């Protein structure tokens, strides 16, 4: 107890004393010389740390790993692009393609403590857009995998998109129980919500939560317009037992992909096969976003809130019947959880694309908002800031 555990982009995992910030231990767990790092927030359970690697767009081989909390010693590794006699290896038809097959586990996971199951969303295959180099379904890319947290053995897997050539990572996962059923909500950059029975991995329903266009059209040298560029990213679905609704934010923004020459894998060089970078996105004047409220038993949309910007931020339902989220204009947005009506807005001064949490201290309720997100897929400028609200 009393530790802060984090990974770094240059491949280190470390633990700090939560009270003093003193370094307790650090361990190199990935090789940055080939483009592999650590991006996800770890999960700690049963004296183990669960962490995956990042770098799928650089042609690394994806992995989910467990380490001892005491000293960072490795416990087990599950490879997300299997080879040899590993489950799923037969879905990589070209020998050796899985070794640079991507499948990074770069976003946050979920853990069912009762069953001891770790649920991990897995990223896109590599090369991202040049599927001819990796024929087959390419398990376990663009999937959710259920792993025995104690042993690292696969329990089940559900693939959202097979042999993806649109860079549509599976990015988020959330667990909840509704009407006595153990469920799992997951989505990816294709902008489609999937709800599964988390005991079996069987599909309950799918529902698009943003504009979709040419989802199954292959990327060609002539080019193809695709929507969305990244439908659901960074922050996942949240369920409210009070309203009985499942909430998920979405990005409504389109792009143009144009296939390039056959890529060659070179360490630390993007392994994509696209002629126009990561795609040519529409101007920001054409973007928008959605906050979606879904009935988890029927898959029907209960209400939708349209935002003038893509919605990357967390959705946080509360016992007070409100839903907290934020937009890239910098506004903390408070919605009525049952109707989607806007109750309150506050300009935090920077784009909001991170977490929003509520907590209590000394009998008073607070809200913490990560503001100032910028760079990467967000073409805006901001200074990273935590803004605290008191109720």
Protein described:
It is a single chain. This protein folds into two domains: 3-311, 8 Propeller (Methanol Dehydrogenase, Chain A); 312-391, Thrombin, subunit H, CATH 2.40.10. The mean pLDDT is 97. It has strands spanning 3-7, 12-17, 23-28, 43-45, 48-52, 63-68, 74-79, 110-112, 117-121, 143-148, 154-159, 170-178, 181-188, 192-197, 203-208, 224-226, 238-240, 245-252, 255-257, 280-281, 288-294, 301-307, 316-317, 322-326, 331-336, 342-347, 356-361, 364-371, 385-390. It is globular. The chain has 391 residues and is an all-beta fold.
Could you tell me the mean pLDDT? 97
Can you count the beta strands? 29
CATH class of the largest domain: Mainly Beta
Structural class by secondary-structure content: mainly beta
The SSE order reads EEEEEEEEEEEEEEEEEEEEEEEEEEEEE
Tell me the overall shape.
Answer: globular
What count of helical segments does DSSP give? 0
What is the third-level CATH name, the topology of the largest domain? Methanol Dehydrogenase, Chain A
The CATH architecture designation of the largest domain is 8 Propeller
Helix content: under 10%
Distance between the termini: 30 Å
Give the full name of the CATH homologous superfamily of the largest domain. Answer: Quinoprotein alcohol dehydrogenase-like superfamily
Biggest β-sheet: strands ordered side by side in the sheet: 4-5-6-7
Which sheet architecture does the biggest sheet show?
4 strands, antiparallel
Instruction: Note poorly predicted spans.
Output: none
Percent of residues in beta strands? Answer: 35-45%
Radius of gyration: 20 Å
């Amino acid at each position: 107890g009393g530790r802060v555990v984090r990974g770094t982009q240059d491949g280190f995992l470390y633990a700090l004393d939560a009270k003093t910030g003193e370094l307790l231990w650090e361990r190199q767990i990935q090789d940055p010389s080939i483009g592999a790092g650590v991006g996800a927030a770890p999960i700690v359970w049963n004296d183990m740390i669960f962490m995956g690697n990042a770098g799928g767009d650089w042609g690394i081989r994806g992995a989910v790993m467990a380490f001892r909390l005491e000293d960072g010693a490795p416990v087990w590794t599950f490879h997300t692009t299997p080879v040899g006699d590993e489950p799923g290896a037969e879905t990589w038809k070209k020998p050796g393609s899985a070794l640079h097959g991507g499948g990074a586990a770069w976003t946050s996971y979920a853990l069912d403590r009762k069953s001891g199951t770790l649920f991990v969303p897995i990223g896109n295959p590599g090369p991202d857009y040049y599927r001819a180099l990796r024929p087959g379904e390419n398990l376990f890319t663009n999937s959710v995998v259920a792993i025995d947290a104690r042993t690292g053995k696969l329990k089940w897997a559900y693939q959202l998109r097979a042999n993806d050539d649109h860079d549509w990572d599976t990015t988020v996962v959330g667990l909840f129980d509704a009407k006595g059923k153990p469920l799992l909500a997951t989505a990816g950059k294709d902008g489609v919500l999937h709800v599964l029975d988390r005991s079996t991995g069987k599909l309950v329903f799918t529902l698009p939560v943003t504009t979709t266009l040419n989802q199954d059209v292959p990327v060609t040298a002539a080019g193809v317009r695709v929507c969305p560029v990244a439908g659901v990213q960074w922050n996942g679905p949240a369920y409210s037992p009070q309203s009985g609704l499942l909430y998920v934010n979405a990005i409504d923004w389109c792009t143009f992909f144009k296939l390039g020459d056959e890529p060659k894998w070179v360490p630390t060089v993007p392994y994509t096969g696209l002629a126009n970078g990561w795609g040519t996105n529409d101007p920001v004047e054409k973007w928008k976003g959605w906050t979606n409220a879904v009935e988890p038993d029927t898959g029907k949309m209960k209400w939708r809130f349209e935002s003038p910007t893509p919605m990357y931020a967390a959705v946080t339902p509360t016992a007070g019947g409100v839903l907290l989220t934020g937009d890239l204009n910098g506004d903390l947005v408070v919605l009525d959880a049952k109707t989607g009506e806007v109750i309150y807005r506050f300009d935090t001064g920077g784009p909001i694309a991170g977490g929003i949490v509520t907590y209590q201290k000394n009998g008073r309720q607070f809200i913490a908002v990560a503001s100032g997100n910028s760079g990467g897929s967000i073409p805006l400028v901001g200074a990273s800031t935590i803004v605290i609200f008191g109720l």
